[in-house]
Amino acid sequence: MRGAQVVSRVSRILKIVSEHPGGASSSAVAAAAGLTRPTAHRLLASLAAEGFLDHDVRAARWHLGPELFLLGSLAAERYDVAELARESVRILAHESGESAFLSVRRGFETVCLLREEGSFPVRSFVLTEGVRFPLGVASAGLAILAFSSDEEVDDYLGRADLTERWGEAHAADCVRERIRETRERGYAVNPALILEGSWGMGAAVFDAAGKPAWALSLTGIESRFRPERQAFLGGLLLEQAHELSKRLR
């Protein structure tokens, strides 16, 4: 393994570990990264030696390490939007009763940064901090993709194969139809396409250049996202997305 290949594999491993709040096993990392277990273990051990990972020997689980915290603290001075967005996420959870989130676009994925629980006792746990989804999958990624340029949408859907993992409901023509609906409404709706019974809605948040760089979203059980309530939830999302876009600018 040399150069760019090593960097790519290391990056992938760190992302995989970040998606397991309770820690990831060597076999789970190897399977998700498409590596043999010995190769994955060597990379995991090397990252731990540098402080980027921490190994819980008793539980046989890998966690993000202290060096990442230090680097992240420094990077937060430039990239952290959590404090600006926290109030909007809190308002969404309070006013809707559902779980509310902030996600950020990273390349062709969205990453959840913030989660706030609502008052409704039955919740969906599809999304939590650190979880990644491709653009066009989940309401946050659909909202961001929908308000990207037509050229970017065409380029992405022309080469992304979302059906292999996410099913035929994420074929390019199906995603295009949901993009059209999202542009008409202003907000995205995910009708239990990831997990049966778990619905989501999202609205894009724009940067100073007018590009969709973040998204606010809500998730919950199907009965809480009936058509008669979607307009109310969509209005809340659009209002807070607009306010947050202004603050971020």
Query: Can you give the mean pLDDT?
Result: 91
CA radius of gyration is: 19 Å
CATH class of the largest domain: Alpha Beta
Number of domains: 2
CATH-level-2 architecture of the largest domain: 2-Layer Sandwich
Give the amount of beta strand, in percent: 15-25%
Terminal residue distance: 42 Å
Biggest sheet overview: 6 strands, antiparallel
Overall geometry comes to globular
Taken in chain order, the helices and strands follow as HHHEEHHEEEHHHHEEEH
**Largest sheet: spatial strand order:** 5-4-3-8-7-6
Poorly predicted runs are none
Number of helices: 10
Q: Assign the structural class, choosing from mainly alpha, mainly beta, alpha/beta, alpha+beta, or little secondary structure.
A: alpha+beta
How many β-strands, per DSSP?
A: 8
Q: Within the CATH hierarchy, at the fold level, what is the topology of the largest domain?
A: Beta-Lactamase
Describe it for me?
This protein has 10 helices and 8 strands. The protein folds into 2 domains: 3-70, Winged helix-like DNA-binding domain superfamily/Winged helix DNA-binding domain (Arc Repressor Mutant, subunit A); 81-248, Beta-Lactamase. It has helices spanning 3-18, 26-33, 37-49, 66-79, 82-96, 138-146, 150-159, 163-166, 172-185, 227-248, and strands at 53-56, 61-64, 99-106, 109-116, 132-134, 188-190, 198-206, 212-221. It is α+β, with helices and mostly antiparallel strands and 249 residues long. A hairpin with a 2-residue loop joins strand 3 (99-106) and strand 4. The protein has a 6-stranded antiparallel sheet, sandwiched between helices. Strands 1-2 form a two-stranded antiparallel ribbon. The model has no long low-confidence stretch (mean pLDDT 91). The chain is globular.
